[in-house]
Batch of 3 targets.
Target 1
Amino acid sequence: MHHECGLIGLYHVDQAATKTYYGLYALQHRGQEGCGIYTCDEQSFEGQKSFGMVRSVLEDKVEKLEARGARNALGHCLYVSKENHLTSNLQPMHFRHMRAEFALASNGSLLNQEQLCAELQQNGAIFQSTSICEILAYLLVQNKDKFLPALTSSLQRLVGSFCYVILRRDKLYAIRDPLGMMPLALGRLGEGWVIASENCAFDIIGAEFVRDVEPGEIIEISANGLSSTRFAERQKSAICLMEYIYFARPDSEIDGINVHLSRFRAGMQLARESFAPSDLIVGVPESATSTARGYAEECGVPFDQGLIKNKYSGRTFIESTQTRRDLAVSMKLSPIHPLVKGKRITLVDDSIVRGTTSRQIIAMMRRAGAREVHMRIASPKMISPCFYGVDTSSYDQLIGSTRSTEEICRCIGADSLAYISNEGLRRAIGRDSVCDACFSEHYPTPLFDYKNIIDAEKERRARCHTGNEKDLEKTL
């Protein structure tokens, strides 16, 4: 299951369900397909979850969740691919076993999921979902140790990018994968604690950021306070570059780096590398707005809001089907005709994945009277699938995997197209220790279940290089 989801957990906090609701509202950009909240006290768990946005699903359920006065809660907003659009995938998930009862929520992807599923089923597991939550839950309950040692050894079996938050009746656990590929932050709220995918969720509920959860760390929060356990040795981290480029909110800080400022610097670097003579710089809202401002400042060309976003629309990249993405673009963006008409426009966007959105936006600008439309992209060209959390797990979903920059430029209808360099992006963000697999094909972990996809692509390329024109034509 490939997803970018939002997690929030609260421990020993008044009005825990209400604060979890508002925290999920701040994390809505990480998942629009479904959401849920579980609360617990010393007696029992209570939960609400469904498909839909946070407000529509939970607004009228919070009062019921607050009725028992529980001070511990766990929330989740879900992005799920169309292949895994199952009610059973909604989170948090509640598990009851003779050795433990807990609610569990996750973000990420396991590359050895098929292998673990097969092994667990041999030992009697019956899976109801395709979520990585069930993998960890079954590993936990099949381990006869006490909870924390069982959790530690279970996590050592997992390979991939993942964060988990686990809620027990008297404890809250926060877990981040050994490479730190997914973000997870720790905050303080009065005498209580908060865990969230991004610290933008802290501001809305009045919590104070304490630190990031470290890669390979388990944080246990209980009545005795906070304790830390490592389930993996310290190693070079590999935060997903897409967090800084697209997924995270601009007001978040991930591993000490502000997302807005990193995007602004990326825009400046992009202008240094590939300036196009223009009359106006326009950012594709909203993830590229910071980047476009940096681009405009560096090259001295005016920036303006040439595209207006419908504030009630969602994020087109994480729509689950191509038809929905196409319709969402039309509903989401509109050009300001007087600003655009007769001008040479440079459109700055965060990425090109399939190319459909870029083509539609450029066509909009031309219909609005733009004389030229140049496209500048604040990430390198995506040439390979992501198996760690971005829903692009095959080469045919990526226009950059089979086409040159010049071919992509023609496909999207731009007058020119350029991407930021990988080195330039790392310099702009301010860190070199990242996962850039979708831009470089350098995967930081073994691929396990997905190795066949890479092998098939290598075989296809080998056929093309030996002059098989029919195979070559299929890629263009």
Target 2
Amino acid sequence: MKRLLIPALALVVGSLAVPALAQTPPAIIGQQYVPAPWWMRDPVIASIGYVRVELPANRAQFSASFQTVDRSVAEASRQAANQIRALSQTLAAYGIENVRVETTLSTQPLYDQYRDENGVLRDNMRPDRIERYQAQATIQVQVRDVAVLERVYATVVASQPASIGQVYFQLEPDNVAKTNLAAAAMRDARTRAENAARNAGANLGSVRVIDPTGRACQTDVLAGWPSYGGGGGQATTVDSEIVMSGSRMMAMAPPPPPPPPAPGQAPSEAQIEAARLALQPPLQVLTDQACVVYGLN
């Protein structure tokens, strides 16, 4: 009986060991036993550098519309085009690198109206009942240098459009700002790792893993990795001057000299100054994170 029992036990143990050896990540979430990442074979500390900075928006855009009404569709379109021609030329003088202008023109018929049996005013929508045509010229303005935003906006207002839209701001960081913020995230990861190791009574060792995306530090090895979560706790606020070092985004150059007004319908200098408003670009939040895994001594 003993001779038969020993091989049977060995067979059972061997059959249980096969699945464990064949198991490879990613493991199933919630599984009781999961393989640890290779960099956890020795004591390590995984640190997420998480930084944020507030920068003023460096782009702005808005639109304005001009309307004319005439019995001739051609004449209505011509008048509407004339209203924005001089304005477009004035804004184009700032240069395409500072101000970009897009214009569109549309027309619609205005029909004769009548009241139905309930007294409701309705349009007599028949081709032979068109009374006049309404033409609408729309100008889309994108300001890529916010230093000239107030003057550009005042120029459009002084042109007396039928309607003008809200000014929308956005931040387009350049490559210098992105690179400096990524470097700040790496430095923040080391600072957090040094503080954590010191407070735990350990010494920081050599670097095991560097992951600029931050995902390596978000593996939940206790619940069954990989389990990527979001964020790295509270972000460290960094100095905007450090992030923008060497960048032209924060260089608020003075506005260029006023462009010469086009003959005819362009607003005068006095009209532009009278329509000037304070338009301060709001602050936008920019964040970045990085993961660095250190050994512990």
Target 3
Amino acid sequence: MEKVLEKAREQVIEDIIALCSINSVEDKAKEGMPFGEGPAKALQWVLKRGEDMGFTSENFDNYAGHIDFGEGEETLGILCHADVVPCGEGWICDPYSPQIIDGRLYGRGVLDNKGPMIVCLHAMHILKEMHVSLKKKVRLIIGTNEETNWKCMDYYFGKKKVEFPQIAFTPDADFPLKYAEKGLLQYCLKMKVKEKISLHGGNAVNSVPEKASVCLDEKYLSEIEQKREKWTTKSGCTYEIKRENTHIILTAIGRAAHGAWVENGINAISGLMLAVEELNVGGDLERIASFYMKYIGLCLHGEKLGLQFSDEESGKLSFNVGMVEVENDEVRFSVDNRVPVTHKCGEVITQLKKILEGTEIEIEMLDCIEGIHIEKNSFLVKTLMQVYRDITGDIKAQPEVDGGCTYARTMKNCVAFGALLPEQENVMHEKNEYLEVSKIETWLKIYLEAIYRLAK
């Protein structure tokens, strides 16, 4: 078996590099490509790779697809996604030309979620080549719109009416296992503006923004230079100044992170709004900054909006302003909340409306997915936990609650299982996303055993 795993590891690396070389950030729809060319190409690549391994596959109009292994009245589903979030700047290499540097494979998607998907596909292939007899069909399901609004799954399970697997997992979080996930609530806070304003930051609502910039009159240059060290102390951001004729571009630089774990990042939009408010620039821009600091500020849990929702099982609500933009005479702050499992998203919206009533702020809903909770003593949870303990030797590991939003929410009997091991750094959605090559073999062992025990 060790020789089999060693051989598979080399092919896994090649396949991850090939798949991550496809820029599959969602883009404008094209004919036959509902989420743009990149996600469609990535989906097609995975399906073709499955066919090369001897599996059958089906493409559902480039929304989603699946790869099947074996037969059976019941199905074990493995849910993955081929789309990725934007890359940002400052990578150690071209994020779409993955490279191994000091034992780390760098590239967008190596963790989220192309790397784990390829490992699961190879685990299926190893079982096939070993002629292992399984009672359930194993189906790798690939979506192309997971990082935004899951229209891929709506199409696959909804319009195309593909039957739900009876049991499933998604390798799109971290080990040991997530038996419950917080609710996902995304919306825009927006207000009308009359003046021409150049203000932008972030590239995904579910990512902590690394950069945010605003155009200001050059008369503020001296004050900015005097105050930016103080702003860094307050916000954690650094500040850059660039001259452009009679204006300057003030840029706040924070630290990117997944929006589900806001404490891992430093929000550049918040840092920029702090600076703008203190400059007293007047007009619409000052009004925007004053609103932001009054109702959002540097808080990570929506405290200024009265969103102190929490529970013992899953902790506090998380609050992330992922993007800001000005267009069509309005400024839009795109917000991502992760709502504790014992609360409903509607409670958050009710509180928001209460606090913002009578202000000029409007709320525009983007997405709402309630949290999930699978019983700890279920066959699914108990089996996967035992697999993890047996392979890793971590006998004290317990199932956890998570703020991430995975495909586990698409059906009744699905959990997030891996792929990040406890010792791996979580750099999903961050620059320099990387996978330690040495972890691939452990991933293979875990997913081989998980598929076998759940499908036998």
